[in-house]
Amino acid sequence: MTFSVLLQSLVSGVLVGGVYALIGIGLTIIFGVMRVINFGHGDIMMVGMYMTYFLFTLAGVDPFVSILATMPLMFLFGAILQKIFINRILGSLPQNQILLTIGLGLIMSNSAMLAFTSDYKILTTSYSSSSFNLAGISISQPLLISFLITCFITAALYWFLMMTDTGQAIRATAQDREAAQLMGINVKWMSILSFGIGAAMAGTAGALISPTYYIFPQVGSAFTLKAFVITVLGGMGSIVGATIGGVIIGVVESVAAVAISSDWKDVVVFTIFLLVLLIKPSGLMGKSHM
Amino acid sequence: MLRKIVLAAAITVLSLPGASYAAKVKIGFINTITGAEAPIGENLTNGVTMAIEDLRKKGIEVDLVKEDDTGKPEKSLAAFEKLATRDNVAGVVGPYTSACSSAVASQADKYKVPLLVPAAAKEEITRKGYKYVFRLNAPADVYSSVLMDAILTLDKPKTIAYIYESTDFGSSTVKTAKEYAKKLGIKEVADEKYQKGAPDFRSTLTKIKSKNPDIVFMVSYVVDAITLMRQSKEIGLSPKAYLGGGAGFTTAQFLAQKEISNLVMASTQWTDDVNWPGAPDFAKRYTAKFKKEPTYHAACAYEAMMIMAETASKNAGDRDKTRNGLKAGKWNGIMGEVSFADYDGFTNQNKHQMLVQQVQNGRYETVFPKKFATKPPVYPFKWK
Amino acid sequence: MAILEIRNVSKFFGGLAANSDVSFEVNEGMIMGLIGPNGAGKTTLFNCITGYYPPSKGEVVFDGKRMNGLQPDKVCKLGMARTWQKVRPLAKMTLLDNVMVGALCRTNSLKVAREMAMEQIGVVRLEHKAGFLAGGLPIGERKKLEVARVLATRPKLLLLDEVMGGLNPAESEDIIKLILDIKAQGKITQMVIEHDMKAIMRISDRIVVLNSGEKLAEGEPQEIVNNPEVVAAYLGTE
Amino acid sequence: MKSFNNRLASIRGAGTVKIVGVIAVAAILFAFPRFVESPYALHMMILFFLSTLMGSSWNIIGGYTGQYSVGHAAYFGTGAYTTMILLTFKDIPPWYGVWAGVAAAVVVALVIGTICFRLRGPYFVLASIAVAEIIRVTALNLTDLTKGAEGILLTDIPPFMIGDTILTDFSSKVPYYYISLVLALLMILVTWLVQNSKLGYYFQAIREDQDAAHSLGINLTIWKNAALVISAVFTSLAGSFYAIFVKFIDPTTVLPLDLSVQIVLISIIGGIGTIFGPVVGALVLVPLSEMLRSNIIAQGLINSGLVSAESATGIFLKEHLAHAHVLIYGILVVIVILFMPEGVLGFFRTIVARKRKGAA
After folding, report:
1. Residue C212 backbone dihedrals phi, psi, to 5 degrees
2. CATH label of the domain that carries residue B207
3. Are residues B317 and B193 in the same domain?
4. Which domains does chain C carry?
5. Is the peptide bond before B380 cis (omega within 30 degrees of 0)?
6. Does any domain span residue A131?
7. Are residues B360 and B226 in the same domain?
């Protein structure tokens, strides 16, 4: 493995990792506040992808611009899911929470299949396969743009949670539900907000990945698993952790593919995941709840 | 109590009167309608739908019993049992996936129900000597050999790199490709398997680029083909030829990606411009009906259903006679000449001529073998 | 004779000391009271003794054996049992089953365990509730359940963590009687964390006072009541 | 005291009724193939027994011990692969291979247990998924041993012989029927034994509160691993049976995350932590998914003349209901969780209890 190969895989790993991070952030917020592992997370992302696709093909909205519409819509979608379904089972048995999100995921992906058929949809923009060269390293334009957008969104979200009253209320809820309730925070409302934000993040990730990937009803499951890994790696409930976790996974996948081989890269990823769980179960970013 | 009710209900359901239509011929069709394999399964469904219409025009009424196997072998078995013993079909077309076909094949012999596999590529399916199992499409080894043969008419390449999905289709196609390449003295410089649906191949492709192969051989069942080619272009991997084994490289979606699909060669069971009887017409009608272009899966399923229904109808739905009819018959339709022969360890295998197509100026052109070619191949590969 | 010796035990969490350099002895058959303001490190000390946390420094010696590093289950098998400040009933199991789980520490036979459990349920006078799910019992009965459950493990030393917390006076009185009964039988030594000063003064033979993780005082109830430092510590907080 | 004894007596009475009931049902099931010859019906029954076996095995670790493993495909696949590899490459007949599979699954379980049981709650769930995925990818890549993605296809199973007498040559469904029935009954018996022994008490104590259990002298590592081993043994048997029954395995059919989720579903939908919960789960899920899969509902409506095949509704039902079956499945899962949080069995139990209360 030459140095340039390594550098190339590092760069593309970081860029892809940015999008992973966004998926992870969505999951981590949901988990942090509600302690529910959302098995339907990838399917929520899939909804965002279809939204982006139809905005592009029917209205001609560029995928990156469409985030402006996708994000609020997905927020609403997540909030409704939370209000109607998840809120009912908060505090019930953990296995039921897992199962409910599995069920909701099945409903989402199969409704998509009925509505849009199981065909692969490909969103081709003028820049889908364009790249530029930087010191012998090729950098994909759409990936770079989505990486920058991810950075911006992450920063904005961080600011929201740290600096605004609502953000602090969400963090308080994440730290200790009961205490937050005693302090007069409307915990149910915070749950709705955070599921909304989580869904918006997943949807945005879907939008960002659309120009370089493809869309079909079952696309979510692979990303759900990835989101789990990222979230645990960074520390459940930690936004900074999820960001770092996303980039780490992106890089590990990319470098393992060249350093070991592409068929074993998932094993490397999962092994790192297990090691982190065992050595530092609270994740890389420790116990900081967001 | 509950148990009894359910049992009773199950028995009632099982004994629902199977409608009997004297004039109709009853054919089963096992396909993957839901689940992860559904996107391709849909093409088979469409092909069969067209076949049923065309059969009606020919005066053959088919009572089609559609079964979804969700891509799982045990469900496929259940579907087959149901078709064989409850629906009393004359023959079965399907299943779509290799895994399901492998599981179902042995049952076909057990129940003596003719099974015509339309598109599953796993070689073993017709290598077990089953009398009632027939296959229309060419098995996995031909996907690679036809491509190599095509390249050999143009050049004598020295090195080859493989990148393929870690599925049955991917690994068995590449396995045969490797054997064939070895025989031809082409040196393997990279062997990269990937998990279907991976979003990022850049590092793997960079690694391949550093080996500078003459040929890049790819197998991808789905639209990973597009991701692969997009990223190959991105990092500037330019071998003398990109060869795509089947599926993912033969879709309309791939074609539509003009920037990256140009000059890629792919092996396929069928093309819409091949001069087999009715092929272009089928493509036209299919496109009009389903608003998308037919894949070779659709064509295979169509032809398989035509052959099965015609044979069964001729033999009044008798399974043994239908089986003998399939074994003895010869057809010439949209898949070219079809007959089920025993050769090289295969039983009842149609020695289907696979084709090589190349994207030229935004169109799929058949470039190999020469007698079916619409355009000569363009070589070597250059990015647009 | 000392059944439990705490020798210079310290416990640090990060940089914070929850216990520092605590030493005292508990003699066989007595009731040792452990008091202190909130956050004084009483429960942490219990956790160090029963194996939930390894002490950062110092030793815990029980019945002549060094306990450092032993897991809670081992500790229980050796004859030291504890209850929890916040009751932890096995909610979806019946009261009888709960106590049987304790008894199974000493036997493999369900039949024997059932008998042992019924005996202890008799001690806490909850026979009429034996078949009820533990999660549905009122707080007073759940506290008694915990006592019965630990008694069923046949302990030599019983560590009771605020067994009277959240109870009404009548229920507290029940528990006090129970503790005194156990003492009267003379087989089990007890160490009790309690906030109710009156109760602790009544039942304890000796009392250790913790404050900010350190041992502030030790002595007989009367001495403790008259210790100006203790009074100051309490007045400072309460 | 008296009321308690009465209660005890009534529990024992109910037990007798239950035992008699189970024996009667088992007798009917043993006689079933004598009266029903349809291979399709037998196939469905076999799938039902297999699901019961899988659900009940999971129930031991998930339901009784409260460790929600979402990686049980690992044991299923281990059993399936061991049996198949021994049979196809070493010609070792399955009735020996199965035990090798069990041994392999025990080893896998102990390794997984050692890693994962240090974790709790959601972390345990995720770790169990990760380990199962590692095993799946490994099976995919160790092509020399497992034939990788190509899978292992079996043509013939050697006849099962004792001495020189051929007991069965596996040519019909009947031997599979009896094997799966016996396995399922055995699993129910094991569950009953667990529930009525120290094991059951310790498992449930761990489920309810690990720390409290620990303080009562329960060595968490030992007992959690014991539960996992029991669970893995029977899941492995299920996997071996599946391999021999379907005669084809590959990583995507015997090792995927999907399968792990499916196993969990059977148990949770039926009702966890009860002997018959997974049986009810299988009884609901197997016929349901088959009816939805084969579109029997639409067919039935059309055949019965209620809906004409050519009418818009008929066409819609025929064309789209088949596509919608996983959707319906998902909706059912959601309904069960929202309205029957204790599972179907628990739901009916509550109803019966309520009625009794009303009557009294």
Report:
1. 50, 40
2. 3.40.50.2300
3. no
4. 1-76+157-166+180-238 (3.40.50.300), 80-154 (no CATH)
5. yes
6. no
7. yes
Distance of alpha carbon C64 from alpha carbon C52, whole angstroms: 20
**Pair B21, B61: CB distance under 8 Å:** yes
Tally of domains within chain B:
2
In a domain, B379, yes or no: no
Name the CA dihedral angle for D82, D85, D87, D90, rounded to a multiple of 10 degrees: -120
Q: Which of D4, D197, D204 sits opposite C131 (nearest CB)?
A: D4
Distance of CA D48 to the CA centre of its chain: 9
Report yes or no on B383 lying in a domain: no
Among residues D157, D116, D159, the alpha carbon closest in space to that of D240 is found at D157
Are B238 and B366 found together in one domain? Answer: yes
The answer on B315 and B179 residing in a single domain is: no
Which residues have a Cβ under 8 Å from the Cβ of D210 and sit 6 or more positions away? D120, D220
ipTM of this predicted structure: 0.88
Question: What six digits make up the tokens of D49?
Answer: 């027994």
Residue A57 to residue D123: CA distance in whole angstroms: 41
Q: From start to end of chain D, where are the E strands? A: 152-153, 160-162, 165-168, 248-249
The chains found to touch C (3+ Cβ pairs under 8 angstroms) are D
The answer as to whether B207 is a domain residue is yes
Nearest to D205 among C50, C101, C130 (CB): C101
Q: Which residues are paired to C161 by β-bridges?
A: C193
Task: Using an 8 Å CB-CB cutoff, list chain B residues near D304.
Answer: 16
pLDDT in tens, B87-144: 899 999 989 999 999 999 989 998 999 999 999 999 989 999 999 999 999 998 899 9
Tens digit of each residue's pLDDT (9 = 90 or more) over B228-274:
998 999 888 999 999 998 778 988 888 888 888 999 999 999 988 88
Q: Which amino acid is at C149?
A: R
Q: Do the domain assignments include residue B63?
A: yes
Total domains present in chain A: 1
**Tokens 């009940």, residue?**
D56
pTM of the full structure: 0.90
Amino acid at site A50:
Y
Contacts A57 to B, Cβ<8 Å: none
Q: Indicate whether A140 belongs to any domain.
A: yes
* Distance in angstroms (rounded) separating the CA atoms of residues D352 and D192: 22
pLDDT, one tens digit for every residue, chain A (290 residues): 578 888 888 998 999 999 899 999 999 999 888 888 899 999 999 999 999 999 999 999 999 999 999 999 999 999 999 999 988 887 777 777 888 998 999 999 989 988 888 788 888 888 877 888 887 788 888 889 999 999 999 999 999 999 999 999 998 888 888 888 888 899 889 999 999 999 999 999 999 999 888 898 988 988 998 898 898 888 888 888 899 999 999 999 999 888 888 888 889 999 998 888 888 877 777 554 33
Residue A289 domain-assigned (yes or no): no
Same domain, B83 and B127: yes
Mind telling me how many Å the CA of D245 is from chain A's nearest CA? 28
The answer to whether residue D265 neighbours chain A at the CB level (below 8 Å) is yes
Q: Residue C175, exposed/middle/buried by CB under 10 A (0-12, 13-18, 19+)? A: buried
Tell how strand C189-193 and strand D248-249 pair up: unpaired
- Residue A259 sits in a domain whose CATH number is 1.10.3470
Domain, as residue range, for A80: 3-125+136-279
**pLDDT level of residue B3 (50, 70, 90 thresholds):** low
Dihedral over alpha carbons D260, D261, D267, D270 (to 10 degrees): -150
DSSP, collapsed to helix, strand or coil, labels residue C132 as: coil
**Which domain, by its residues, includes B336?**
2-138+275-350
**pLDDT of amino acid D356:** 78
CA distance D246 to chain B (A): 6
Same domain, B12 and B121: yes
- Cβ neighbors of C37 (< 8 A, separation 6 or more) are C211, C233, C234, C236, C237, C238
Shared domain for B126 and B252, answered yes or no, is no
